[in-house]
From TrEMBL:
NAD(P)-binding domain residues: 7-191
Lineage top rank: taxon: Bacteria
SUPFAM superfamilies xref list: NAD(P)-binding Rossmann-fold domains (SSF51735)
Pfam families in UniProt: NAD_binding_10 (PF13460)
Phylogenetic classification of the source organism: Bacteria, Bacillati, Actinomycetota, Actinomycetes, Micrococcales
Protein name: NAD(P)-binding domain-containing protein
Single Gene Ontology MF annotation: biliverdin reductase [NAD(P)H] activity
C-alpha cells in the first residue's frame, strides 16, 4: 500500500512511518524540516499548503493525519486537514485515517470519570480544533476513520491496546504509548470495516 502521513516526522506519525515501512508499505511524509524516518520519502513544506499536500498524496492509496497543534496558529489541525481534504479531492484518493483525541465529538463518556472535567477545562482549545478537524472530514464524503487516543506517552511499546467505538459500554484508560497508538493506526488503516467509525484508544 502507498501511504502518505501528514505529520510523519515526529511523534506518533514517525512511529507509524517506521512501522509501515517495516511492514512493506511505500511511505511518504510531509515535513517542514525535511526530517523523515529511514526508508521513507519526504515532501518538504508546510502541511497547510494544499499544493505541497497534493504532491505528497498523488498516487497514494491512503492518507493518515497525525499533526498536532502549532504555536501561535489557531486551529492548526483543522487547517491542515482542510488542505488534505482539498488535495484528496484533486487526486481522487479516498481513504483517510485521522488521529483526533478522546473528548472530541461525543467521546467524553469513554474517559474515566475523574478525567472528564479536567479534559474539558485544560484541553478546551485543542478539543475545539479536533472537533473542527473531524467536521471537515465527515462532510468530505471520504472513507474516514477517526482514532481518538487518551493521553500520549513516550513509554516503550507494549504490543497491546484497547480500541472501542463510542457505542461500547466499556471505558478506556488514561494513556497509551505513542508506539502502540502507531501500531493501532496501521492496523485500522488496513481494516476497511473501520470506515465511518470513530475509535477511542488507550492502553
Amino acid at each position: 500500500m502507498k501511504i502518505t502521513i501528514i505529520g510523519g516526522s515526529q511523534g506518533t506519525g514517525a512511529h507509524l512511518a517506521t512501522l509501515a515501512h517495516q511492514a512493506g508499505h511505500e511511505v511518504t511524509t510531509v515535513s517542514r524540516s525535511g526530517v523523515t524516518p529511514a526508508g521513507t520519502r519526504v515532501v518538504v513544506g508546510n502541511a497547510c499548503d494544499a499544493s505541497i499536500v497534493t504532491e505528497a498524496i498523488a498516487g497514494a492509496d491512503a492518507v493518515v493525519v497525525t499533526v498536532g497543534g502549532a504555536k501561535g496558529v489557531r486551529n492548526h489541525r483543522a487547517a491542515v486537514t482542510q488542505a488534505v481534504v482539498a488535495a484528496m479531492a484533486k487526486t481522487a484518493t479516498r481513504r483517510i485515517v485521522v488521529q483526533s483525541s478522546l473528548g472530541a465529538g461525543d467521546s467524553a463518556k469513554q474517559l474515566p470519570a475523574f478525567l472528564r472535567p479536567v479534559m474539558k477545562v485544560l484541553l478546551a482549545k485543542p478539543l475545539a480544533d479536533h472537533n473542527a478537524q473531524e467536521t471537515t472530514v465527515t462532510s468530505s464524503g471520504l472513507d474516514w476513520t477517526f482514532v481518538r487516543p487518551t493521553g500520549l506517552t513516550n513509554k516503550p511499546a507494549t504490543g497491546s491496546w484497547k480500541a472501542l467505538e463510542v457505542t461500547s459500554k466499556e471505558r478506556l484508560g488514561g494513556s497509551i504509548p505513542r508506539a502502540d497508538l502507531a501500531a493501532c493506526l496501521l492496523e485500522i488503516l488496513e481494516d476497511d470495516s473501520t470506515i465511518g467509525k470513530a475509535m477511542g484508544v488507550s492502553a
